[in-house]
Design goal:
The chain has 230 residues and is of the alpha+beta class. The protein contains four helices and 14 strands.
Length: 230
Amino acid sequence: MLTAVVDGEALDGAVLELSWAAGNELQSVDGAGAYRFALHNGLVHDSLLMLRREDQWLDWRSFSAPAYGRARDASVVWEQPGPELDILLASGEGKHLECKQEVPEGDSRKKMLKTIAAFASQDGGTLLIGVRDDLQIVGLPEKPTVDKQELQVVGMIRDSVEPAPPYESRVIDHHGKKVLVIEVSGGGQMYAYRDGQRTEFYVRVGLNTVPARHHEIAAGFRQAPTVTTF
C-alpha cells in the first residue's frame, strides 16, 4: 500500500495520479489528508506520483530505484523496507551497485574500500552487505551483532578512504534478514584509497572497479571545491 499525505490549501480540483509504464491510477483530492493506493501487485519500478490540477503539477514524487548513493528524499518513508531492497536489486550489480555476502576481509576488504572511493569520485553508488553476487539476500551473520558489523565497516572507511567520503550507513530488515546498506554520494572530487603510505584512485567501469587514469584524476581535482580564506 502506498500512502500519500497531502497538505496545503486551495486543493479544489486537484487529483493524485500514480503512473507507471503500463498504466495509471487516479484519486480525487477533497482537501488535506491521507490518500491510499492499494498496490495489489506492489510498487512498480519507476512509478511517479503526481499531485496536479489539470496540466499544472503541484507536487510529485518519483519512485525510481532508491539507488546509487544519491540523496534520499526524506519525505518518502518506506514503512516496509523489503520492497525498497527489491527495487534496488532489480537492475542488478553494475556501475552504481556492489553486493557483498558478508563484511569482507583481506583482499576482498581492499576491493570494497576501493569501490567506495570510486563511487564517491564519480556520481555515487550503493554497497549492499548481506547479498550474494547472484543477488540472493542471505543477510548478515548473527555474530558479531549487526551494530558491530556496521561499526566495523564505518571504521574501515574512516581509516582507508581520504578525504572522508559523503555516505550514509543503515540496515534494512528483509523478511528477518538484515542487510547493511552503504549509500555513497558523488562528492564532486577525487577520493583516494590509502594503503599504508600509498594513495590510489579508482573509478567504476561497468561491474568493475579499476585504477583511474591520469586525465580522470586531473579532472577530479579540477572540479574539487575550493575554499577561499580572508
